[in-house]
Amino acid sequence: MEEGNLNPTKEELARRVGMTAGKVESLLFVARTPISMQKTVGAETDTILQEITADTAIESPNMSVSKQLMRRHVLNVLNKLRPKERRIIRLRFGFEDGAERSLSEIGEIFGLSRERVRQLENRALYKLKKCLVNQGLDAYADTLI
């Protein structure tokens, strides 16, 4: 690297400071100047970057409504199951109190083996899927099995 060169390559920098070119590249990437979220986007607009940047922590209204509708449909379809199957599904997926139970925990409640609970759960999920498909709610059914 020449002393007067103001734009050395990554390889030249790496040699000079005693590290790999990859390490220099990652340091240069981290050191980029941050962009303000208040910066306007485009020359003739008042829109700021924050307005067009999605917040991944917030669910979109469409997705939220879809989930609420799906939950309502699934809860209605649960009535098609036998009482034991319905309770297993409600316990397994936390419909009763928000706490999802393991197969073993449900087995203790019903006095059944973990394997028997798994079989009943699978049968119930199959029935739910079939019901949802019959009602034209195939999109929900694909999430079950």
UniProtKB/TrEMBL annotation:
Give a GO biological-process term.
cellular response to light stimulus
Cite the RNA polymerase sigma-70 domain residue spans from the record: 102-128
* InterPro entries in UniProt: RNA_pol_sigma-70_dom, RNA_pol_sigma70, RNA_pol_sigma70_r3, RNA_pol_sigma70_r4, RNA_pol_sigma_r3/r4-like, Sigma-70_RNA_pol_init_factors, WH-like_DNA-bd_sf
Q: Which domain of life is it from?
A: Eukaryota
Q: Name one GO molecular function term.
A: sigma factor activity
Q: Which Pfam families match?
A: Sigma70_r3 (PF04539), Sigma70_r4 (PF04545)
Q: Which family does it belong to?
A: Belongs to the sigma-70 factor family.
User: What protein name is recorded for this chain?
Assistant: RNA polymerase sigma factor sigF chloroplastic-like
Q: Where does this protein come from, organism-wise?
A: Trifolium medium
